[in-house]
């Protein structure tokens, strides 16, 4: 059995249920791990300023945000990677030419498409997997391509003129229409939902952020456990000592994991932590009895 010293959780579809809640069993499992001296953190494509609202008062030791482009621990920045001004100009030019909705994310705000910003909020974001079945992705992205506004252009232009630090760009695009984005140099393109991709500076993905945490704390990847459910989690699921895919993950995400647990709706985090000996059956039984959902 591996000696796990840190555990990282994706947020959407993993730490949170489809209703945007944290199961009580998950909360108890994390508190138990921390009582054993295990660091517990999040590894997410979300912005740092929205994470606390999503996880509420869940005790978290380290935050890997923007798909690994920013790592913070106790309000101390361990690592950050931002776009160069030239790369930002190229992103704006390409997305504008292709009539793509886009947002750019700084440490404190999102700049750009109102539609994408709304899509990042609960309960709307929780409905994305369902909406993608009802509304064809191609038609939705084509519709939004006609919603460009002068306000969007002004906001992005001000961002470029002020040379703000930008950690991530989110672009509305279908899986079949993202090939041109992969041609961009010095960036990684990561899909976190059916409607959009996250574009981050090269080597700014989640596993790089987790590695930077490991260097800071002298913890190796083999001593780290991770939980995830989507394509942008695949790198960390493959590289960590233990990679756990949620039961609600797609088949190709499950295929790269060391273990597949129950879904985010059904105590999946708690079950996996018991399976690997981090959480005892006694603790799990107690936490299940306290689930308030």
Automatic annotation (TrEMBL):
GO cellular-component term (any): cytosol
Pfam families for the chain: Hydrolase_3
An example molecular function term from Gene Ontology annotations: phosphatase activity
InterPro entries documented for this protein: Cof, HAD-like_sf, HAD-SF_hydro_IIB, HAD_sf
Domain of life: Bacteria
Protein name: HAD superfamily hydrolase
Lineage: Bacteria, Bacillati, Bacillota, Bacilli, Lactobacillales
């Amino acid at each position: 059995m591996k000696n796990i010293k840190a555990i990282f959780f994706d947020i959407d579809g993993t730490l949170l249920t489809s209703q945007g809640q944290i199961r009580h069993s998950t909360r108890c499992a994390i508190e138990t791990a921390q009582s054993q001296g295990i660091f517990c953190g999040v590894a997410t494509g979300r912005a740092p300023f929205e994470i606390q609202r999503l996880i509420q008062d869940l005790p978290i030791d380290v935050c890997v945000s923007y798909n690994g482009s920013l790592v913070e621990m106790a309000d101390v920045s361990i690592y950050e990677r931002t776009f160069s001004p030239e790369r930002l100009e190229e992103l704006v030019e390409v997305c504008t030419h292709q009539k793509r909705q886009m947002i750019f994310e700084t440490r404190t705000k999102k700049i750009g498409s109102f539609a994408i910003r709304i899509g990042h909020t609960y309960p709307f974001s929780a409905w994305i997997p369902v909406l993608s079945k009802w509304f064809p992705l191609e038609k939705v992205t084509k519709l939004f391509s006609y919603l460009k506004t002068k306000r969007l252009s002004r906001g992005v232009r001000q961002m470029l003129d002020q040379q703000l630090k930008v950690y991530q760009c989110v672009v509305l695009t279908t899986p079949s229409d993202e090939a041109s984005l992969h041609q961009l140099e010095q960036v990684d393109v990561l899909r976190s939902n059916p409607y959009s991709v996250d574009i981050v500076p090269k080597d700014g993905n989640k596993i790089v952020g987790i590695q930077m945490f490991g260097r800071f704390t002298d913890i190796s990847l083999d001593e780290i456990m991770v939980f995830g459910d989507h394509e942008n989690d695949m790198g960390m699921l493959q590289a960590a000592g233990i990679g756990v895919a949620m039961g609600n993950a797609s088949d190709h995400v499950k295929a790269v994991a060391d273990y597949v647990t129950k879904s985010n709706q059904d105590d999946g985090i708690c079950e996996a932590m018991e399976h690997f000996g981090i959480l005892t059956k006694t603790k799990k039984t107690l936490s299940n009895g306290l689930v308030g959902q």
